[in-house]
Each structure stands twice: as structure tokens, then as C-alpha cells.
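Request: Not sure, any thoughts?
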Amino acid sequence: MTVPQLAAVSTPSAADATLILGPSLGTSNILWDRAIAVLRQHFRIISVDLPGHGLSPAAEQPFSVADLADAVVAVADDAGVDTFYYAGVSLGGQIALQLALRHPDRVLGVSIICSAAKIGDTESWLKRAAAVRAQGTPALVSGSASRWFADGFIAAHPEDAGELLHALSDANDESYALCCEALAASDMREALASIAVPVLALWGDQDVVITPTDARAVAESVRNGRGVEITGAGHLAPIERPDEVAAALLRHFTKD
């Protein structure tokens, strides 16, 4: 496996501390746009895109979630950042756990959002990878629209929802499939007890992808964990409830 290249977008800020933000599978850095308005007051923000998503180049070789964590560290290196905070959604949340496990000297604290130590089951991810290779990511848009958002969000915020669903449709098919295969192979449940970096687990009370039990288990299994439920959020909490997510991250990352 190889470490993929991730594109990053920096948001200007007078703050000294750096917060790197990771998106969910099928989305892009725009997932964080509404929360960044608050977060940029306290952090220098760097938003990354998954391989073949948003601004990142397509992947040509298989990679693991651990490889994606190494790629985030490479983004920090390129930006001249030594230590940083990190928050990621779904697959981005698994990257958070790998960062905490593999690079505890680089991350000051992490947050997994609408994520778990094991997301879904291996067979389902492999089936989705095969389906995307056969039909393309546009075939996923309808199903994702029903899974991603809490009740009423699409009607209340059609432009935000539409941009995210377009990001899914525009994602590179092979890169998306490789992300699915990385998730199929990823199971961090046995590694959680080894993680000493502070971990905040956030989950939406209307998330149909990640159960509160699975999200809460991360906070309870790491050495220094906290769990917070976001009311009125589905699977993409940063775009659905940006103020609540930003407030929870600020409490976690600036509690000292």
C-alpha cells in the first residue's frame, strides 16, 4: 500500500494553534464550511479532501486508513505545522483514531464525529466498492440523501445539501471504491485502549449510519475520552449543526 496525496485548503487566522479537518466519505472540505466561521477565530484551519474527492488527486493504488493518517501528517509537514488538533467525520473520524495511535507526538487532541472504531461490516463495504466501479458514484446520490441528513435538513438547507451531494457525484469512482476497501479492512476496536491522546466522540441523535452505542464506545474505551450527543444532527453533523459542533470542539481542544 502507498500513502496517497491529499489536497488541503488553509483558512487565514490570527490564531497560533492549528486544527486540521477531515471530511466523510463521498463529501469534501465544504462539509466544514459552516463550522469554520466559528473555529477560525481560535485556530488556523487546514481542511483536507480524501483521495479523488474535492481537490485531492485520484488514487491509483490501494491504501489503508493508517495510510490516510500518514497523509494528513504529510499535509501538516508541508504546511510547516509541528503539532495540531484534528477532527474528522465518519471515515475522517477513523483517521483521527489512527493519528492518535500512530502519531501521538504530533496530535494534541482529536475528535471523531459520527464515526466509530468499526464502521459497518466488511462485506457491505466490498459490495459498495464493486457497485461504484460498475455504476459510478452518481448511483449513490439518492441513497446518500436519505442516510446523510436529519429530518428536514434538505428542505431547510437545499443549497448546502445539494453541494454535498454534487461532491459525491463528482468523486472519482476508483478512489471512492478504494476508500470503501480501506473501511472494509479497518477495525480499531482492539487498539482503542492504547490511545492516550484526548479523544472527543460526537454523534448525531438522528444518525442512521453510526449508532450512539458505537460512537460512545470509543469515548469509553480510550484512556482519555469524552462523548457528546448533537441534537438534531444526522450523519453530517458539522454542516447540520455547525454551532453545536464548533462549541463542542472548542470545549475539548481549549479546555486547558
User: Anything to note?
Assistant: The domain at 8-253 is CATH 3.40.50.1820 (Rossmann fold).
